Amino acid sequence: MWATMSMVGDTGYARMTVEAIASRAGVGKQTIYRWWPRGKAALVLDALAENVATGPAALPDSGDLEADLRTVVRATVAEFADPKLSATTRALTVETLADDDLAAQVRDRLLRPQLDAVRDRLEAARDAGHVRAGADLDHAVESIFGPIFHRWLLRTGPLTDEYAEGLLQHVMAALR
Amino acid sequence: MWATMSMVGDTGYARMTVEAIASRAGVGKQTIYRWWPRGKAALVLDALAENVATGPAALPDSGDLEADLRTVVRATVAEFADPKLSATTRALTVETLADDDLAAQVRDRLLRPQLDAVRDRLEAARDAGHVRAGADLDHAVESIFGPIFHRWLLRTGPLTDEYAEGLLQHVMAALR
Hints:
Chains A, B: It comes from Paractinoplanes pyxinae. Chains A, B: This is TetR/AcrR family transcriptional regulator. The structure is a homodimer. Chain A has about 180 residues and is mostly helical. Chain A has a domain at about 55-175: Tetracycline Repressor, domain 2, CATH 1.10.357. The first copy, chain A, has nine helices and no strands. Chain A has helices at about 1-10, 20-25, 30-35, 40-55, 65-80, 85-100, 100-125, 135-155, 160-175. The radius of gyration of chain A is 18 Å and the shape is elongated. The interface of A and B includes residues 135, 139 and 153 of A.
């Protein structure tokens, strides 16, 4: 998986080939296709999913919801603003639009863990009385990631720290 | 344009050909390519943009912001839930991911007029004292369309009237 991720970073998804990944990993091309018959989309998904699985499972809980969400919102906006990561995500998005099974895997292995981590933090905040009792936490989670994704994919505006802060304030207004 | 839209509806975007559109419109294939050298993506974009341009430019203003937004949210969710419209939008989204110029046209001709119409209605509501003074209206607009688009594209949940109502309540909580 290291060979895949280092190659995505160096070469970019579009110019990356299964041959080159195999060569960097020191195995034959047939070995790659035996394990990842769908080729590079499946390889990149596995590499990204491994990152998610080995990353922190939960959000930090400093007791200050706004500060903890600021970390998530800023990091997410910065990821989508990064040209290399953005190109990889864009390529993977195209492949998911043509392949329902890949789409389900991206959703369940990449996306869901991140949405659930934010939902858990919001639930803790509600238990601590920092979120109004009637707030719907699923809608709250989507009110964070939905606008970022929409802005990134449809390029309706800049993805900056200033944008992240404005989004955070809008999200908090619905939660208090 | 009527030939294009009736064909998208009958045949679906994926199986639609420029030849068949030309035949339905009663012109030669070369005529289509002369005016729309990019082929069917450009044709569908023009047909959809014409719909937007001839549709109502402004949202209704009944004086009741929640009721007016409910109409928009329900209609948007229903559009994305419609299998034929969804397939067309999905196909156009794939093409925009590979073509920056087409992406800019989709944004400016299809998307922007709809976002602006909602923003204008929110501005009127703020002037009438129905929206808190500090609310950021651009974030408010994206908090409506972003989550719907995210849920539709990544298939994270159902697109139902119940979902539309929950989203509306979350959006209103940030505005009051």
